[in-house]
C-alpha cells in the first residue's frame, strides 16, 4: 500500500466554502504529494494560484502522523519573506490538504539541474536570503534540520523560500539555545558531523549553518 495520498479530485472543497481547482503535480516527498491549484470563489476562478501539499489523513505509523502535526504547528506560526507562506490546512475526503504559497520556479535543485551553474551574484543572493530565513528560525528556537537545495524553493522573482518543515524541531530551553537534540535526521550529504556522532552530545541550531555551507 502506498504511503502517499491519492491524486486529488478536479475540485477540492474546504469546510468554509473555499474551493480549489487542482492542476498538475509539482513534486513528491517522503509521504506527501504536491499539486498546483487555483482558488475558486462563487464558481469562478479567483486568479489566485497556490500549492496544495496532500497527505493521507490516516497516517501509519502514528509517529509519522505526529511528525506531520509538529510540522503544521511550527510552519503555521512562521511569517518571513524567505519562508514558504503557510495559509491553512483542512481535511477533504480521505486526505489532509495544506495550502501553501506557490513557488513558480520549483526548487533550487531543479534550477541547478536545468541551468548547470549559477553566477556569483546569484549565489550571493540565494545564500543571503537563506541566511535571513534561518536567522529568523533560530531566533524562534526552531532548527530546520533538512536544509538542502531540494528544500529551497524559488518564487517567480527567483527569491528563495525555505520550505518543508518535516524535520524541524523546537529547542525548548530555559537558557536560550542550551538544549540539544539527539535524533538522527536529515539528508546524508548535508549532515553535520555532530548528528552522526555515536554517543555524542546531540546537536543544536548550528547543524543548519553546516548545511548552508554545503549548499554554498
Description:
- The protein is of the alpha+beta class and 216 residues long.
- It has two domains: 11-101, 2-Layer Sandwich (Phosphorylase Kinase, domain 1), CATH 3.30.200.20; 108-215, Orthogonal Bundle (Transferase(Phosphotransferase), domain 1), CATH 1.10.510.
- 26% of the residues lie in helices and 27% in strands.
- It is built from five helices and ten strands; from the N terminus they run E-E-E-E-H-E-E-H-H-E-E-E-E-H-H.
- It has helices spanning 62-75, 108-115, 120-139, 193-196, 206-215, and strands at residues 11-13, 19-28, 33-41, 44-56, 86-92, 95-101, 142-143, 152-154, 160-162, 169-170.
- The strands form three sheets. The chain has a six-stranded antiparallel sheet, with no helix packed on it. Strands 7-10 form a two-stranded antiparallel ribbon. Strands 8-9 form a two-stranded antiparallel sheet.
- A hairpin with a 2-residue loop joins strand 3 (33-41) and strand 4.
- Helix 3 runs antiparallel to helix 5.
- It starts with 10 loop residues before the first strand and ends with a helix.
Distance between the termini: 38 Å
Shape: globular
**How many domains is the backbone divided into?**
2
CATH topology of the largest domain: Transferase(Phosphotransferase), domain 1
Largest sheet: 6 strands, antiparallel
Strand arrangement, major sheet: 1-2-3-4-6-5
- The poorly predicted ranges are none
Secondary structure class reads alpha+beta
Helix content: 25-40%
The CATH top-level class label of the largest domain:
Mainly Alpha
Oligomeric description of these chains: single chain
Radius of gyration: 18 Å
How many helices? The count is 5
CATH architecture of the largest domain: Orthogonal Bundle
Strand fraction band? 25-35%
Q: Please, what is the average pLDDT? A: 89
Specify the CATH homologous superfamily of the largest domain.
Transferase(Phosphotransferase) domain 1
